[in-house]
Amino acid sequence: MKRLEGKVAIVTGGGGGIGSATALRLANEGAKVVCADINLQAAERAAAALGGNGLAVWFDAADAASIGAMVDQTVQHFGRLDILHNNTAITDPETHGQDLSLLDIPLEVWRKTLDVNLTGYMLSCRFAIAHMIKTGGGSIINTASGSGLRGDRVRIAYGTSKAAVINMTRYIAAQYGREGVRCNAIAPGVIVTPAMRATAPDILAIARHYVLTPRLGTPEDIAALTAFLASDESGYITGECIEINGGKNSCQPHYAEANLHPTGKESTP
Hints:
This protein is an alpha/beta fold. It is built from ten helices and seven strands. The chain has one domain: 3-Layer(aba) Sandwich (Rossmann fold). α5 runs parallel beside α6.
């Protein structure tokens, strides 16, 4: 039996690499899925792959009205809402290129990043939970990041926004758990997406040295974990942040470099 039969899901950022893979996995598990994205064409391509189980919706994570409209359109079309996968983020190279250290980051970049990465998630949860409670509950899965758990020399706004997403996840779990709403976060490490290959091949090359698995992560890895957290199989899990990064933070990185590749061979994505 499909684990998500009869469920309705929203995947924001549904036109991207992780979003489209997650939408496909949820649909294959039996859910009807809204692919929501600021890039409507990408959302339409992702939804088309789902056949009659998919719907493309335009939305802007920095615009409260469009977030509310996204949720309303989902309920009007499919009749309910059971699963929300918040997967939108500021990832464009121009903004990331300005998201530097505390003393260097422009204030408008800080505000834009938190607007999309944090406030957008909060509003999606607010609108979704109101519908979930009416039908007995639901599952929210927020995409966080390893950057929200550890510091770095750059991307202070991105990392701070993701840290806030993780704690907001706990607050939502605490406030609505007794009404049947579970809320968890996923913190991906380096995931090989088309965008990552195009914009940050150097990061992929470096990351290969520090994961404990023979390969780097794929969008399908995130999709599989999301499907589990969306299903009743994870019914006793809420308020958690689950890292999915190939064990990268389970060891001291210099020892991983020395011991994982004694023959000099490198793993591949």
